[in-house]
Amino acid sequence: MTHPESSYDVVIIGAGHNGLICANYLQRAGLSVCVFESRLEAGGGLCTEETTIPGHLHNLASVFHDAVEIMPAMKDLELSRWGMEYVRPEVQLGLALREGRPFLQYDSVEATCRALERRSHADANAWREMAEGYDEYFRTLIMPALYAPPPKPSEQALALEETEQGRGFLRMLRATPLDVVTNSFVDEATRAAILFQLLVPRGVVYDSAGLGMMVPLVVTGIEQSHLAKGGSHHLAHALWRALLSAKGKLRGTLRVVEIVVDTGRAVGVVLETGERVKANKAVISAIDIEQTFLELIAEKHLPAAFRKSVATHKPDEFSLFGLHLALREPPRYRGAAHEPDLDRACKVGIGFESVADLHECFAEVRLGRLPERPRMFACCPTLFDHTQAPAGRHTAFCWAIAPYHLKDGGADAWDKRGASFAERCLEAWREVAPNMGGDNILALRTLTPRDIPRKFANMREGGVFGGRMSQDQLDAFRPLPELSDYRTPVKGLYLAGASQHPGGGILGACGAIAAEAVAEDLRIHPWWS
Fold first, then answer.
1. What is the DSSP string of 106-153?
2. Rounded to whole angstroms, how far apart are CA atoms 353 and 342?
């Protein structure tokens, strides 16, 4: 069967938020753009489904949108015009401890310090000092750098060593997050609260060498957790409405099976239907680099050394076990007797009470063992957005830190062990919130680490961050040194996925920087800058 060949200036593979942002920028720059998505719904991890009971909405992958107040696409594409609304909970975080006063973090430094005073006067002072010392520095230098191509390591060091704050930041670039919190704070819960927040949505593990500079990001509160009203898929809907309004194209349930290369240049794609789509100026891959180079491009078009380098790209160090619940009432935490605001915290940490908990958790994960005591992120979105469940009902979820490959049975062993681990998670939840059981739970659905790549092919080995956040895969080395400028060995082929700098999460940076690279090469004015 023959298919008519369609033609566009730019073809984009993958309709996650980065692919859609890139498409919007380039379509508005005067190029004709078409985005191809293998799933029924655009958005990638921006996935909201009635997965338990009709009317109860569950965000299966992306929930905490921490960068929406700084993400340029929000204003550039006028996403509020296309129905995008967010709510920012006042109580950003709570640690639900098994005994004693819980830790609380608010959407202002002063409110957080007042809560800290009830735990540790020394830590309240240290928190305020770090926040005041680095707030302007992060706002004016570090956060804007997220939306620009990564600098060369030598350029970064030269710029930082010019100021006292920069030298302090440079020192943290030599330390682990654990080093920084240990040197700065005395209370174990304070230390655990900071290290816990680096895991999701940042993908940074507590003992990662050279990532100590992430600690002031948490303390300053520059990135605040926001929840998308109506569910995370509303961001995807706003992005594709914006694209369609600009006359761009989005075609779903069509898997790209080949990137066509002719004399060293990407000239189009082939769909699983056999249809060939011509790309006159560029092909942009907004999916992972493994699929892009090891599956979609014929081996003969790439140097063997480059393919080997791609194959050594390290996946995320940990995955997430998801448990999604339809509830009669929201979780009621024991710790609210000491701090009533715990019951209205956006993110609640369970099982993260001290540095020792992180040591134990990752010792098990790195050995491929199911954690005996789950360490979890919990959230009840309907406390802040009543549209995600029927009146008087609620939805909640927990994510437990977990390995993808289990020591006994590998990744497929999750199919047999998922149900028992879900009960273990519920037991840990009930330990700090006794109402999380019995007839309060109307229905539940699990999403194991093995289920994640089955549902989202881009999330290799159950990793949601696009590759390990380690020094050898960050900044000018992300995902590989030869790919860090968003260009590839194949002319006309660009990258826009979470594998690129600055990484995963709802930042929108990878799509924006990719659009910048295409515009520069085509000598098109980047209207958005």
1. ESSHHHHHHHHHTT-HHHHHHHHHHHHHHHHHIIIIIHHHTTSPPPPH
2. 15
Residue 410 Cα to chain centre, angstroms: 25
Strand partners for 269: 259, 277
C-alpha triplet 238, 244, 248: angle, nearest 5°: 125
CA distances from 287 to 6, 277, 465 (A): 22, 18, 12
Interatomic CA distance for residues 23 and 6, integer angstroms: 17
How many other C-beta atoms are found inside a 10 Å radius of the C-beta of residue 519?
Answer: 19
Q: Report the number of secondary-structure helices (H) and strands (E) in the chain.
A: 17, 18
Amino acid (1-letter code) at residue 85: E
CA neighbor of 230 nearest in space, from 424, 413, 82? 82
Give pLDDT, residue 168: 82
Nearest to 362 by CA among 322, 324, 316, 398: 316
CB 33 within 8 A of CB 249: yes
> Mean pLDDT, consecutive 10-residue segments, the chain of 529 residues?
78 98 98 96 94 97 95 97 97 97 97 97 98 92 91 76 80 92 97 97 94 95 96 97 97 96 98 97 98 98 97 97 98 98 98 97 96 96 98 98 97 98 98 97 98 95 95 95 97 97 94 98 94
**Domains, the chain, with CATH or none:** 6-52+66-83+230-312+469-522 (3.50.50.60), 130-223 (no CATH)
Residue 3 pLDDT:
57
Q: What angle do CA 173, 174, 179 make, to 5 degrees?
A: 100
Question: 């049975």: which residue's tokens?
Answer: 409
Query: What are the C-alpha distances in Å from 135 to residues 117, 139, 150?
Result: 21, 6, 21
Residue 525 CA to residue 529 CA, distance in Å, equals 9
Angstrom distances, CA of residue 370 to CA of 227, 362, 405, 425: 30, 11, 10, 11
Per the rule left: phi > 0, alpha: psi between -120 and 50, beta: everything else, 210 is left
The DSSP element (H or E) to which 513 belongs, if any, is helix 509-522
**Cα(508)–Cα(486) distance, integer angstroms:** 14
pLDDT at 529: 79
The per-residue pLDDT for 4 is 62
Question: For residue 2, what pLDDT is reported?
Answer: 53
Contacts of 88 (CB under 8 A, 6+ apart): 107, 224, 225, 226
> Can you give the pLDDT at residue 514?
98
Paired with 8 in beta bridges are 279
β-strand partners of 502: none
The interaxial angle of helices 233-245 and 17-28, nearest 10 deg, is 20
Closest by CA position to 429, among listed 452, 393, 403, 396: 396
Residue carrying the six token digits 């709570």: 94
Please count the other Cβ atoms lying within 10 Å of the Cβ belonging to residue 52. 20
